[in-house]
Amino acid sequence: MTNIILTGDRPTGRLHLGHYVGSLKTRVEMQADPMNKLFIMVADMQALTDNAKNPEKIRTNLTEVALDYLAVGLDPSKTTIFVQSQIPELSELTMYYLNLVSVGRVRRNPTVKAEIEQKKFGESVPTGFFIYPVSQAADITAFKANLVPVGEDQKPMLEQTQEIVHSFNNTYGEVLVEPKAVLPPKNMGRLPGIDGNGKMSKSLGNGIYLADTADVVQKKVMSMYTDPNHIHVEDPGQVEGNMVFTYLDVFGQDKEKIAELKEHYRRGGLGDVKIKRYLIDVLEAELAPIRTRREEYAKDLGEVLNILQAGSQSAEKVAAATLSEVKKAMGIAYF
Ligand code: TRP
Prior knowledge:
This protein is mainly alpha-helical and 335 residues long. It has 14 helices and five strands. Helix content is 55%, strand content 7%. The chain has a three-stranded parallel sheet. A two-stranded parallel ribbon has the order 4-5. The site of tryptophan has 13 residues, from strand 1 and helix 8.
């Protein structure tokens, strides 16, 4: 069966290793299967819901995120890469879906709830931000996506989308497709930051970015949180909670060597600098080709915009077809 897969990212910053292992890699794998049709969206409208006063930030990061996509190997000849705001049909669908969702239901969305608290919005939460789960339902259903690869935190969005699909189909007739979340592979969903403090994130400043130069990657790895009690090389060290080993488990191919290094570290006699040097090699094996491709594309940003424009044009055709079915089903295709 053909899968229609849709996912996207808010362009509020460059993408990092957490995005890479948690989602970008899976997308590239999915893209390789000719039975899959992928739509990857730069969710600039969603990013604007809490950045209305700073559109410049979104505009800049739109190209950064697009560069990250191209750098990891998302291929515009196979995958439709597009920009949310350039598909007006998504906003139209949102307006119709909003009538099927109560304010109370949106308020109970755990992710929105957590974000409102975290951003200290209180009653001054922008209405657009408050209803973004409904707009996300439009993103997904416009393409009749049946699979949506997302992180754990997006599960409530998928549940909300499923409810909207049911409500729409029950009210107006079977038009929309119910999507399923595809969650990241085990242990890949929450790559911790280099400081070991929670998830890798821009706000915590603990990330390694796909755009980081080899120098920056080296410095970041050298500053990584290891075992604070492993002071002398001879000291026995702890592997659990030691970011170098956490990252080696995620990125390293040579599991036997990693097991030996862990043994040696636990016994004592293996210094942090040695394991960090090894991790740098491991990361560079993955990051160097990505960086090279990113630099290539970055030389011609006009071409990157052309890719986004072509993707948006072809995405709009699909969304327009769905919108037209939706309006017919609702009985509002008057003319
Ligand atoms: N909410 C997603 C994020 O925070 C971005 C997004 C917008 C999205 N619309 C989507 C993801 C539709 C999957 C499907 O990055």
